[in-house]
Structure formats: C-alpha cells, structure tokens
Specification:
With 85 residues, this protein is α+β, with helices and mostly antiparallel strands. It contains 2 helices and 6 strands. The chain has one domain: Ferrous iron transport protein A (FeoA) (SH3 type barrels). The longest helix is centred in the middle third of the chain and has 10 residues. The chain is globular, with a radius of gyration of 12 Å.
C-alpha cells in the first residue's frame, strides 16, 4: 500500500524510500543536471543517512551504493514514497 509522498528533506533518517518524483522546475539547470548524472529518477531507492545539526546544512543520503550530500533546498524538490517493512 502506497503512502503519501513527502519530500526527501522530511524523510526520517534510516527510513528507506523510493523516489516518487522530482520537481525539476524548482531546481536550477546545473542542479538538475547533477541529480540526473548521479542517477536520481523515479523508482530509485534512497535513504537519508545524516543531517547537519546546524540549521539548513546538507543532508547525506544513500542512492544505490553512493553517498551523496544535498542542499536542503534540493532535497525539498525530491518527493519520495517511504517503504514499509
């Protein structure tokens, strides 16, 4: 059963999810290109590993076997469906 998508920025740490969609229009051309190069696309598995404690800092997430740091604004444009165990 699918849950309501939320942004990657809102996803709890260590909660696995799949990318439901990306609001490409909220990203600059270089940001969108970088996400595509890193393999961000609908259906890809993702997990938040760490958030910077200082407000507004980056979010480290795992996509595939890579660990990627994203600005919170960019993470807010990525919509995910949390996976239930």
């Amino acid at each position: 059963m699918a849950t309501t998508p939320l942004s990657l920025e809102q996803l709890p740490q260590r909660q696995r999810a799949t990318v439901a969609g990306i609001a490409w229009d909220r990203l600059s051309a270089p940001e969108g290109r970088r996400l595509r190069e890193l393999g961000f696309d609908e259906g890809v598995g993702i997990e938040v590993l760490h958030r910077a404690r200082i407000g507004g800092g980056p979010i480290a997430c795992r996509i595939g076997r890579m660990t990627v740091a994203l600005r919170r604004r960019v993470a807010g444009a990525i919509h995910v469906d949390p996976l239930t165990s």
